[in-house]
Amino acid sequence: EISAYHEAGHALVSELLPYADPVHKISLISRGEALGYTWNLPEEERFVETKSKFKDKLATLLAGRAAEELVFQDASTGAENDLREATKIAREMVVNYGMSEKIGPVVLGEREELVFLGKELAEHKVISERMASAVDAEIKRIIEEAYERAKEILERHRKALEAIAKKLLRKEELSRKQFLAILRKFGVRSAHLK
Predict the structure, then answer these.
(1) Can you tell me the distance from the alpha carbon of 79 to that of 51, in angstroms, rounded to the nearest whole number?
(2) Phi, psi of 113 (to 5 degrees)
(3) Rounded distance between C-alpha atoms, residue 77 and residue 171, angstroms
(4) How far apart are CA 131 and CA 43, in angstroms?
(5) C-alpha 111 chain-centroid distance
(6) Which of 58-72, 110-124, 147-161 has the lowest mean pLDDT?
(7) How far apart are CA 136 and CA 37, in angstroms?
(8) Model confidence pLDDT, tens digit, residues 149-164
(9) pTM (2 d.p.)
């Protein structure tokens, strides 16, 4: 049940945010360590990412945990990978891409790479402890803002969230067509339908 609401949260938020990738399939069938998954497919091939895209991706990643807390008033360990990925994206936004108004358009690390291996060897910190503290605070702010955004969407569309989770519990998998039918039933409009 926790996994059903978790995946329903990911799917619902992803489908309602214009820069997130649309939902292709939702499943409660385990894959590896994951108890379920929401499979999103991009509408087009991208070679660069935007700040808007990252913000929608963060809200989508945090929507599973937000759904758990909304429905069960508790969080599970199921969001560990989502939290890890969200933290990585928020850190890259601040440290590598200059996507923080507070820190500014700067890169705060120098990478050394072995090109022939395609691996990053090390990142040298070129910032003070005070700046590192500001970076950490900014990463936390970005993540908390994305979490609140996801939670607000889920609260506003609670009936659709419940219906998606219940249908997942009965069928174990939902196609895009089945998922969109549930959204239509509750008057929820996908950001990805023209």
Answers:
(1) 23
(2) -130, 150
(3) 24
(4) 38
(5) 26
(6) 110-124
(7) 29
(8) 999 999 999 999 999 9
(9) 0.88
Q: What is the mean pLDDT of residues 45-74?
A: 94
Question: In the 3-class helix/strand/coil scheme, how is the chain assigned residue by residue?
Answer: CHHHHHHHHHHHHHHHCCCCCCEEEEECCCECCECCEEEECCCCCCCCCCHHHHHHHHHHHHHHHHHHHHHHCCCCHHHHHHHHHHHHHHHHHHHCCCCCCCCCCCCCEEEEEECCCCEEEEEEECCCHHHHHHHHHHHHHHHHHHHHHHHHHHHHCHHHHHHHHHHHHHHCEEEHHHHHHHHHHCCCCCCCCC
Cα distance between residue 135 and residue 140, in whole Å: 9
More confident: 35 or 178: 178
**pLDDT above 80 for 193:** yes
Q: Which two tokens stand for residue 14?
A: 């992803």
CB atoms within 10 A of CB 46: 10
Amino acid occupying residue 14: S
Tokens coding 108: 């705060």
Nearest to 161 by CA among 29, 50, 1: 1
Which one is predicted more confidently, 45 or 165? 165
Provide the annotated active-site residues.
Answer: 7
Please, which residues have CB within 8 angstroms of residue 116's CB and are 6 or more apart in sequence? Answer: none
